[in-house]
Amino acid sequence: MDLIEKIKKLKEDRDAIILAHNYQLPEIQDIADFVGDSLELSRIAKNAKEKIIVFCGVHFMAETASILAPEKKVLLPDINSGCPLANMISPDDVKRLKREFPNAKVVAYINTSAEVKAESDYCCTSANAISVVEKVPSDEIIFIPDRNLGYYVSKHTNKKIYIWNGFCPTHQRILPQDIEKLKSKYPNAKVVVHPECRREVLDLADKIASTSGIIKFVKEDEGNEYIIGTEMGILHRLRKEVPEKIFYPASYLSVCPNMKKNTLEKVLWALEELNPEVKVPEPIRTRALKAIENMLNL
Ligand code: CIZ
Question: Would you state the pLDDT for residue 1?
Answer without folding.
Answer: 63
